[in-house]
Design brief:
- 47% of the residues lie in helices and 13% in strands.
- The protein has 8 helices and 7 strands.
- Strands 3-2-1-4-5-6-7 form a 7-stranded parallel beta sheet, with helices on both faces.
- β6, α6 (212-224) and β7 form a beta-alpha-beta unit.
- The structure holds nicotinamide-adenine-dinucleotide.
């Protein structure tokens, strides 16, 4: 059993009806935490709630149908949780939306861009604004985990709006960690979970993809070491491949190469060569 959080402490997990959030709820319920499962999909949430109640006991699970994009709804949720159980030891801002209705291009309808920013960027910001004051006031050790994406780190072309939201979340979460570690008396840390390719939603398991439980097991280990960047490998991409891809992306700036040179006809051979070499670190 993980000793990350005390028995009966509280985990608030958004996007808890499915995938990585649901696996997190399962894991922390097994650890004896009280679980607040937050999701906008009522049907899925109620089914997931029943599963988690089977682990933690119905009295220790609360299912909250909330759209994380709503600051008011997140603020009401925090007040409700505080009044019922107290402030969370874990806030996992994990819910995210993907592009729907557009082709994932730069000229996607503005409504898609706005929806993705509302959920993927303001969702976590709303979560922090709602819950952090209570967590700071409680003074007990607590963690905030925001779920990012490799698409926000290495920026593969094809889905600019989603990539941009996850890049913003990376920047935001680094600032959150910096603020918290410099805030006198604060006992809260922030972490960026970056899953690799993971079978989630209603998809069938795919060869090469991790299962959500693997992501959560990896996250728990990394949180135990108090790591900020929790970058998961998967069955196709090793941690070393990730490090090289991230470094190549950073070197685009340092070397003043064209944007996204990894996919540029004049640079992609050099990138392939770079991937074969040892990391220059
Ligand atoms: N699956 C992957 O390969 C992968 C890779 C990298 C990052 N991620 C990230 O992992 C996180 C979890 O995604 P998943 O793969 O488990 O997906 P999922 O679709 O299985 O679960 C996401 C959950 O979030 C909920 N949700 C969506 N919008 C919401 C909103 N506005 N308010 C409240 N709940 C909302 C959905 O109803 C769903 O239950 C996301 O942040 C995603 O970007 C996933």
């Amino acid at each position: 059993m993980s000793s990350l959080f005390p028995q009966n402490s509280i985990a608030v997990i958004t996007g808890a009806a499915s995938g990585i959030g649901r696996a997190a709820a399962r894991n922390f319920a097994r650890d004896g935490m009280k679980i607040v499962m937050v999701d906008s999909n009522e049907q899925k949430l109620l089914a997931a709630r029943d599963e988690i109640a089977g682990i933690a006991g119905a009295a220790n699970v609360s299912a909250e149908i909330v759209d994380v994009a709503s600051a008011e709804a997140m603020s009401s949720l925090a007040a409700k949780v505080q009044a019922a159980w107290g402030s969370p030891s874990l806030l996992m801002n994990n819910a995210a939306a993907f592009v729907s209705g557009g082709k994932g291009g730069i000229l996607d309808p503005l409504t898609n861009w706005q929806m993705l920013f509302d959920v993927n960027v303001f969702g976590p910001i709303n979560g922090v604004m709602a819950f952090l004051p209570g967590m700071l006031e409680a003074g007990t050790p607590a963690k905030i985990v925001n779920t990012g994406s490799k698409q926000g780190l290495t920026n593969p072309p094809g889905n600019p709006a989603y990539n941009t939201t996850k890049a913003a979340l990376n920047a935001y979460t680094q600032n959150l960690a910096h603020d918290l570690r410099n805030r006198p008396g604060a006992n809260v840390s922030a972490h960026l979970l970056v899953p690799g390719w993971t079978t989630t939603g209603d998809s069938e398991p795919k060869q090469g993809a991790w299962m959500p439980e693997q992501v959560i097991a990896f996250m728990v280990e990394a949180l135990g070491r108090d790591e900020f960047f929790i970058i998961c490998p998967d069955g196709e991409t090793s941690s070393e491949m990730d490090r090289k891809r991230i470094l190549w992306n950073a070197l685009d700036i340092v070397k003043n190469r064209p944007a996204l040179s990894r996919w540029h006809p004049k640079h992609k051979d050099a990138f392939a060569e770079f991937m074969k070499q040892d990391l220059p670190l």
